[in-house]
From TrEMBL:
This is YjbR protein. It comes from Kribbella caucasensis. Residues 1-20 are annotated as: Disordered. Residues 1-12 have a biased composition (Polar residues).
């Protein structure tokens, strides 16, 4: 889980034009854009709202830490953590190595990692990106 318990205010974001949005608002808006794909749908995971592609989890919203949580290749998760862009996702203290929590409220960043999560989920299903 991210060390930051508070949501990053839109003015503290890294410039991705999230002004006027709460983290949950941005999550919901970006997911609405993904739901045009009939293989993608809303669900829950460990009590968190999430989105799945053909049954595979790809993203979630951690309401306690007010952050986006996405499933990506381990190497990408490591990169995001090492650059300070993300934090390990560790509910109940267990680190999920293919999941990263992104607390910075940044539309461009969130959109990018969501697209990466969709591509990763498709790849795991054996589909071309």
């Amino acid at each position: 889980m991210p060390a930051n318990d508070q949501a990053t205010s839109p003015s503290e974001g890294s410039g991705g034009d999230a002004a006027g949005y709460t983290p949950r608002d941005l999550y919901d808006e970006l997911l609405d854009d993904l739901l045009y794909d009939p293989a993608i749908g809303r669900a829950t995971m460990m009590g968190y709202p999430c989105v799945r592609l053909a049954g595979r989890f790809l993203a979630s919203y951690d309401h306690k830490a007010a952050c986006l949580v996405v499933k990506l290749p381990r190497e990408r998760v490591t990169e995001l953590v090492e650059t300070g862009t993300g934090d390990p996702f560790a509910p109940a203290g267990k680190v999920f190595r293919e999941w990263v929590a992104i607390a910075t409220l940044d539309r461009e960043l969130w959109s990018t990692v969501l697209a990466e999560a969709v591509a990763f989920a498709r790849q795991s299903l054996g589909h071309e990106q």
